[in-house]
Design a protein that fits this description.
Helix content is 47%, strand content 3%. With 181 residues, it is mainly α. The chain has three domains: 34 residues, no CATH class; 43 residues, no CATH class; 51 residues. The chain has a two-stranded antiparallel ribbon with strand order 1-2. Strand 1 and strand 2 form a beta hairpin. It is rod-shaped, with a radius of gyration of 55 Å.
Length: 181
């Protein structure tokens, strides 16, 4: 942007080269017209006033345009149809996996019905360890009961034997006393 006022006298009219114009301060600018020389356009604004009582009848205040459209009805399946499809593809579903597997279905369903607290293998292992400990305790107790039952039977046998020996000796003694030879 050059200032041409320095070289041109103030009495001669300035003629701008084609595609340029002079600013009021004498600065040569590219373009055919100065922004202040553009015609003024009038913009008419209209204001519609709606009565408060009829406002809700005239203006739609719902957010229906922002909501996604509902899914087509033909793409949805019923619960019965789901289980029919599930039965058909049961053996095609992988056993294990983070998604799209029987393991995933079990986890999701267990969470939904409230069984998720015993789903980890650590929880199962703790329960299996407790069952093993209880079985060992039961076996030990049954062995002790068998040993005590055997000892009791032996003690009863010895007691009867002693009773019969004692009775036999006491009868012999009473016979000897009654019949001294």
């Amino acid at each position: 942007m050059a200032n041409y006022n320095d070289n041109i006298s103030s009495t001669s009219p300035l003629v701008a080269p084609q595609g340029f114009h002079y600013m009021p301060d004498g600065t040569l600018m590219e373009g055919n017209t100065h922004p202040s020389e553009t015609p003024v356009q009038t913009l008419n604004l209209n204001k519609n006033i709606i009565n408060k009582r009829v406002y809700s009848n005239v203006i739609d205040t719902s957010f229906s345009q922002l909501l996604p459209p509902p899914p087509p009805l033909e793409d949805t399946i019923t619960v019965n149809e789901f289980f029919e499809f599930y039965s058909q593809i049961f053996y095609d579903i992988p056993e294990k996996g983070d998604v799209n597997s029987h393991e995933y279905l079990i986890k999701r369903s267990s969470e939904y019905v409230g069984l998720a607290e015993i789903q980890s293998s650590d929880d199962f292992q703790v329960l299996l360890d407790e069952i093993t400990t209880l079985r060992q305790n039961l076996l030990t107790t049954e062995q002790e009961v068998n040993e005590l039952t055997t000892k009791l039977a032996q003690a009863e046998t010895e007691l009867r034997s002693l009773e019969s020996q004692t009775l036999g000796k006491s009868q012999a003694n009473s016979n000897n006393l009654a019949n001294p030879n």
